[in-house]
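Researcher: Let's walk through a ligand-bound prediction step by step. First, I give you the protein sequence. Second, the SMILES string for LARABZUK. Third, you return the three-dimensional complex as structure tokens. Ready?
Model: Ready.
Researcher: Here are steps one and two:
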Amino acid sequence: MNASDEEMAPAVRSILDAARERPGGEERLAVDARSLPEAFAAAEADGRVPVVAEVKPTSPTTEGTREDDPVELAREMVEGGAAALSVLTEPAHFGGSTENLSRIRAAVDVPVLRKDFLVREDQLDAVESDVVLLIARFVGDDLPRLLEAAEERGFQALVEVHGEGELERALDAGATLVGVNNRDLGKLEVDLGTFESVVGPNRERVPDDVTLVAESGITTAADARRMRDAGADGLLVGSAIMADGSVRSNTETFTRASPEGKS
Ligand SMILES: O=C(O)c1ccccc1NCC(=O)[C@H](O)[C@H](O)COP(=O)(O)O
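Model: Step three, the predicted complex:
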């Protein structure tokens, strides 16, 4: 454990310990990725809010497990207008698997983000996806090297940040997909003001070709509009879509949250 591990919630420490133990793939992958920015542009063009809907059967902050077939859930999310999907592949804390991801990616035609906690280059080779996640806090100084390694394999990389310093590091490393996580992985508290305070003062600093994604804690159409007003090109929504009821109509709550369609 290092000093910054000690500042993390026990659940996150446990996730990170498991990530460090997880084996990588045996062969270097070469991926033909579906473009996330193009999927966002296509959603915008037909009046949908660009939403990355997340297949997250359970999590440290939700009660119970959604047992439905993940492929069926994924299809319903796409029917609800999701521009892309995020699939948890971490088994112990999120009920996910790499098999789920492969089955889902084969069943839909939108980009799929592998939502896992990658800490080593060989872990990129565990399963094909269109986008991989690099969490600035977890990968530290390895960020530029892992970003390059991901792109060399054909992946797009969503670099996740939580503060202005991490945004700076992500941009300096050349990230073109940046997710601002409203969930503080130290305390597991969610504050939508995070996206606003990280992006607001740095709007000029973020190049036009960088796609900004607001992640976590988006539970209503009003939250979605708030994040869009703050500059989010797309929204990553998990728990509120995986909540009880129809995943398709839960997804529509966000994909239809345009400024005109106040609800
Ligand atoms: O979701 C959790 O409880 C969680 C706990 C500890 C570390 C990470 C966690 N979530 C990972 C995510 O990035 C979220 O699943 C994703 O941003 C969607 O968030 P939400 O819409 O709030 O479910």
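Researcher: And what stands out?
Model: The chain is about 40% helix and 15% strand. Residues 221 and 261 are 9 Å apart (CA to CA).
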